[in-house]
Write a structure and sequence with these properties.
The complex is a heterodimer of chains A (about 300) and B (about 450). Chain A is α/β, with parallel strands linked by helices. Chain A is built from 9 helices and 10 strands. In chain A, the strands form 2 sheets. Chain A has a 6-stranded mixed β-sheet with strand order 3-2-1-4-6-5, sandwiched between helices. In chain A, strands 8-7-9-10 form a 4-stranded antiparallel β-sheet, with no helix packed on it. In chain A, helix 1 crosses helix 2 and helix 6 packs antiparallel against helix 7. Chain A is globular, with a radius of gyration of 19 Å. Chain B folds into 3 domains: about 210 residues, 3-Layer(aba) Sandwich (Rossmann fold); about 80 residues, Elongation Factor Tu (Ef-tu), domain 3 (Beta Barrel), CATH 2.40.30; about 100 residues, Beta Barrel (Elongation Factor Tu (Ef-tu), domain 3), CATH 2.40.30.10. Chain B is about 15% helix and about 30% strand. Chain B is built from 7 helices and 23 strands. In chain B, a hairpin with a 2-residue loop joins strand 11 and strand 12. Chain B is globular and about 70 Å long. The chains are: A alpha/beta (about 300), B alpha+beta (about 450).
Chain lengths: ~300, ~450
C-alpha cells in the first residue's frame, strides 16, 4: 500500500505553489522581486511550475544597483528568454542621477535600493511583491508572516501584522497599501540547495567553486576585479572559492570552498557552521538589530 | 548527528529526501524555559550556526550571565530582547536524518492566546511545558485546551526544570496524574509525558542519566518517531478550486485545468466527482503537475485537475465525490477565537469570511456562549467577545459554504473572519455540527 506521505521538499514545494496561486487569484497586480540570486531563481522556478502550462502570470522586477556580476545578469536574461516572463528593471543609478537617493559613503547600494524599489512598485501599481526571504536567515525574519502587510509607505510594523491561521491567507489591502509575500518562508538554506540539485535549476556560476584571485579584508575574501581592485599594500592570492550569496559586486565576499558541483554544494551546506549572511555580507554586520531596522524601512 | 542529505534520484518525484515534515507548536508560561528548550533542541541537534552561537555568547557575557542563554537564539525582535519576553509567533527549523521540523514558538502570556491559536492551527504536535516546581498551572490548562480546540492530534507534556527538584520521580508522577485527570475532559488523542531539564539537557536530545526511573524516549527521539501519517484525512475527497488555468497562448488554447491544494482524501484519474455548488457530476480526466501527470493526489499536494466534461467551475468551488460531499450551508455554528484588540465581536455585526478558497460575507446571528479557557465554564449571557476570548457563535453567510466539522477535517472545517473596514484578520473559526443538509 502506498504511504501517501509527501517528502519534506515536495511538501515545501506544494506550500509555495499554493501561496503563489493564492496571490495571483486574490491580488490585482503581483510582481516577483528578482535579484538573480538563488532564492529568487527558485521562486521563479516555482512560479513556472504553479501556472504551467500557462506562462507566469506576473512580471518580475530586478532592482538594478548597477553593481552586478555579469554572470548574474546573463543568468537573469536566460530565465527571461526561457520562460517568456515579463522583466521590469528599476535602476538605482537612475535614482541617484535624479536625486531620488544619494550614494552612501561606504559604496553600498543595498540601503538606497529601497526607495527605488518602492517608487517602481508604486509606478507600476504592484500591490503584492513576492520576495525570496526565508525565516531561517535571520532572527528578525523568524517572525515574518508569509503575507506581510506594508502600509502606504511600504513600511513593516512588527506590532501590526495579521495573524496567519491554517493556510487561510488574508491579502486584503486598501488603496496604496501592499503586501510582501514570502513563498519560501519555511525553506532553509539546505532545502533550497537540495531542491536546486534535485530540479537541476539554472544558477549563476558564481555559486560553484573555481580558482579565483582574491584579497582578504577584515576576515572576508573579495575577488580581485573591476569592482574590488587591489589596494596599495594588499597582496592577492589564488584560492578555490565560491559565493554563498549574491549582492552588490563591490561588497559581496566569497568563501573558500572546493564545492564545484551542486552535489558538492549540498554536502558543504549540510556541514557548514556559519549562516550565509554572517559569512559573506559586509552590510549585515553593523548591529544585532540591523535587519529589523532595514525591514521597518521597507527593505525585504 | 548530521543534517539530512537528500537522495537525488532521477525517477523518484517523492524520493528526494527520505524524511517527511513535522510541525510542532510550543507553549508555556513566561518562565517555563520554553525558549531554552528550543535553543537546546537546535543546539544539541547541531542546527545552530557558529555566528549565531557567538552572538548569543557575547550578549550573555555582556549581561553578566554565568552560562550562554540559549533563549537568546529565539527571542527575535528588539522589543522582546529588551523586555526578555517573546511576543509573537516565531518559526524555527531544524532537521535530523529522519525528519525536518518546523517549530512554531508561541508566547505564553495571557494576552497572546491568539499566537497560540496561530501556531497550533497547522501543528501535528503541541509541546506543553510545565515547571516541575510549580506543577500544572492555569496556563498549562489553557494551552492544552487551545491545542485540543485547534485539533492538534498529539500532545507532549515536558515537565521541565527537573534538575531543580532533584530529578524526583514523585514530582513527575504527581504532575502526570494531575494533568491526565484534567486532559480527560478534553479531546486528546495522544498524550505523552517527558521529564526534562532544558538548561542541563536532560532527556531533550540525549537520555538523562539523572533519571534512570524514566523508561520513555527523550524528546527528540519521540518527535522523530511520532506517527503522524494517519492523522491526515485520506477518506473524504475535498479539492477547493484555487485558480483556473486557461493559458491565453497559441500553444495551449484549449487547455482548462483547475489548480488547487488537496485538502483531504485521495484523488485518482477516472474517479467520478461532484462539483459544488453546480451540483454536476463528471470524471477526473487527469491530475497534472508541471512534472507531468500523477496517478494519485493526496494532501498537501498542489496539483491541477482536468475534468472529462466542460462544467462551469471557478475559484471557491469544491470538487468532491458524489457519495461523499461536504455540507452545503449558509448557516455556520462554530467555535471562534477572537484576535482583534481594537474591537469586540458583537451580535449583528458583519464580517468578511474566508473558508478554503472562498470569500463571502457573514453576519453574527447569535453568541451562544463564551468559554472560560481556564475552567471550561460556559457563560451563556455573554454579549461581546473580546481579544483572546473563545466563544461558540452562529453565523449567517451570504453564499453557501462547503463545510465539514473541524474535528473531521482541519481544512474544510476552518475559516477566518476579516474586519471589512480595517482588513485585519479578527477571528479563527472552527466549524461545529453542520448546518442544513444540501
Amino acid at each position: 500500500m502506498k504511504s501517501h506521505v509527501l517528502s519534506q521538499l515536495r511538501s515545501l514545494e506544494a506550500e509555495s505553489i499554493h501561496i503563489m496561486r493564492e496571490v495571483v487569484a486574490e491580488m490585482q497586480r503581483p510582481c516577483l522581486l528578482f535579484s538573480g540570486g538563488k532564492d529568487s531563481i527558485v521562486m521563479l522556478h516555482l512560479a513556472v511550475k504553479a501556472f504551467a502550462p500557462a506562462r507566469v502570470p506576473f512580471p518580475i522586477m530586478h532592482v538594478d544597483t548597477g553593481l552586478n556580476f555579469q554572470t548574474v545578469l546573463d543568468c537573469r536574461d536566460r530565465w527571461v528568454e526561457r520562460t517568456g516572463v515579463q522583466l521590469v528593471v528599476a535602476s538605482v543609478q537612475e535614482g541617484i542621477d535624479r536625486g531620488l537617493v544619494q550614494e552612501e559613503p561606504n559604496g553600498s547600494r543595498n540601503r538606497i535600493q529601497t526607495p527605488v524599489l518602492l517608487e517602481a512598485a508604486e509606478k507600476h501599481g504592484f500591490d503584492a511583491l513576492f520576495g525570496g526571504g526565508r525565516r531561517d536567515e535571520e532572527k528578525a525574519r523568524a517572525k515574518e508572516r508569509v503575507f506581510s502587510f506594508r502600509d502606504d509607505f511600504g513600511q513593516w510594523d512588527p506590532k501590526n501584522q495579521r495573524p496567519e491561521i491554517w493556510n487561510l491567507y488574508n491579502g486584503r489591502v486598501h488603496q496604496g497599501e501592499s503586501i510582501r509575500v514570502f513563498p519560501l518562508s519555511n525553506w532553509t538554506e539546505l532545502d533550497i540547495w537540495s531542491y536546486i540539485e534535485a530540479e537541476d535549476i539554472d544558477l549563476p556560476d558564481l555559486y560553484l567553486a573555481r580558482e579565483r584571485e582574491v584579497v582578504e579584508r577584515s576576515g572576508m575574501l573579495y575577488e580581485v576585479n573591476g569592482f574590488t581592485p587591489l589596494k596599495d599594500g594588499e597582496t592577492a592570492q589564488v584560492l578555490s572559492t565560491r559565493y554563498r550569496t549574491v549582492g552588490d559586486a563591490n561588497l559581496t565576499a566569497c568563501v573558500e570552498s572546493g564545492a564545484a558541483t551542486l552535489r558538492d554544494v549540498v554536502e558543504e551546506v549540510a556541514a557548514v557552521r556559519l549562516t550565509e549572511r554572517g559569512a559573506t555580507r559586509g552590510d549585515d554586520k553593523v548591529s544585532e538589530a540591523a535587519m529589523e531596522d532595514r525591514k521597518k524601512e521597507g527593505y525585504f | 548527528m548530521t543534517t539530512t542529505l537528500p537522495e537525488a534520484t532521477p525517477e523518484g518525484r517523492n524520493e528526494l529526501v527520505t524524511g517527511d515534515l513535522l510541525r510542532f507548536a510550543t507553549a508555556g508560561s513566561v518562565d517555563d524555559g520554553k525558549s531554552t528548550l528550543i535553543g537546546r533542541l537546535l543546539f544539541d541537534s547541531k542546527s545552530i550556526f557558529a555566528d549565531q552561537l557567538e552572538s548569543v555568547e557575547q550578549v550573555s557575557r555582556d549581561r553578566g550571565n554565568d552560562y550562554a542563554d540559549l533563549s537568546l537564539l529565539t527571542d527575535g525582535l528588539r522589543a522582546e530582547r529588551e523586555q526578555g519576553i517573546t511576543i509573537d509567533v516565531a518559526y524555527r527549523y531544524f532537521a535530523t536524518p529522519k525528519r525536518k521540523f518546523i517549530i512554531a514558538d508561541t508566547p505564553g502570556h495571557i494576552q497572546y492566546t491568539r499566537n497560540m491559536v496561530t501556531g497550533a492551527s497547522t501543528a501535528d504536535v503541541a509541546l506543553i511545558l510545565v515547571d516541575a516546581r510549580k506543577g500544572v498551572v492555569e496556563q498549562s490548562r489553557r494551552h492544552t485546551f487551545l491545542a485540543t480546540l485547534l485539533g492538534v492530534p498529539h500532545i507532549v507534556v515536558c515537565v521541565n526544570k527537573m534538575d531543580l527538584v532533584d530529578y524526583d520521580e514523585q514530582v513527575f508522577e504527581q504532575i502526570r496524574a494531575e494533568f491526565t485527570e484534567f486532559a480527560a475532559r478534553l479531546r486528546v488523542p495522544d498524550l505523552t509525558f517527558i521529564p526534562v531539564s532544558a538548561l542541563a539537557g536532560d532527556n531533550v536530545v540525549t537520555r538523562s542519566e539523572n533519571m534512570p526511573w524514566f523508561d520513555g524516549s527523550p524528546l527528540l527521539s519521540h518527535l522523530e518517531r511520532l506517527h503522524v501519517a494517519s492523522d491526515r484525512n485520506l477518506v473524504d475527497v475535498r479539492f477547493p478550486v484555487q485558480y483556473v488555468i486557461r493559458p491565453q497562448q497559441n500553444d495551449a488554447r484549449d487547455y482548462r485545468g483547475y489548480a488547487g491544494t488537496v485538502a483531504s482524501g485521495v484523488m485518482k484519474p477516472g474517479d467520478r466527482v461532484l462539483a459544488l455548488p453546480a451540483g454536476l457530476e463528471t470524471t477526473i480526466a487527469s491530475i497534472e503537475t508541471a512534472d507531468g501527470p500523477v496517478e494519485e493526489a493526496y494532501p498537501p499536494m498542489s496539483v491541477t485537475v482536468r475534468l472529462a466534461d466542460e462544467i462551469d467551475i471557478s475559484r471557491g468551488d469544491m470538487i468532491c465525490r458524489p457519495n461523499n460531499a461536504p455540507t452545503v450551508t449558509q448557516d455556520v455554528d462554530a467555535q471562534i477565537c477572537w484576535m482583534d484588540e481594537s474591537a469586540a465581536l458583537v451580535q449583528g455585526k458583519k464580517y468578511a469570511i474566508k473558508h478554503t478558497t472562498r470569500w463571502a460575507r457573514a453576519m453574527v446571528k447569535n453568541i451562544n456562549y463564551r468559554v472560560d479557557v481556564n475552567t471550561l465554564h460556559r457563560d451563556e449571557d455573554a454579549t461581546e467577545i473580546k481579544l483572546n476570548e473563545i466563544a461558540r457563535i452562529r453565523l449567517r453567510v451570504t453564499q453557501p459554504l462547503f463545510v465539514d466539522p473541524y474535528t473531521q477535517n482541519r481544512q474544510t472545517g476552518a475559516f477566518i473572519l476579516v474586519d471589512e473596514a480595517t482588513n485585519k484578520t479578527v477571528a479563527a473559526g472552527m466549524i461545529g455540527t453542520a448546518g442544513r443538509q444540501y
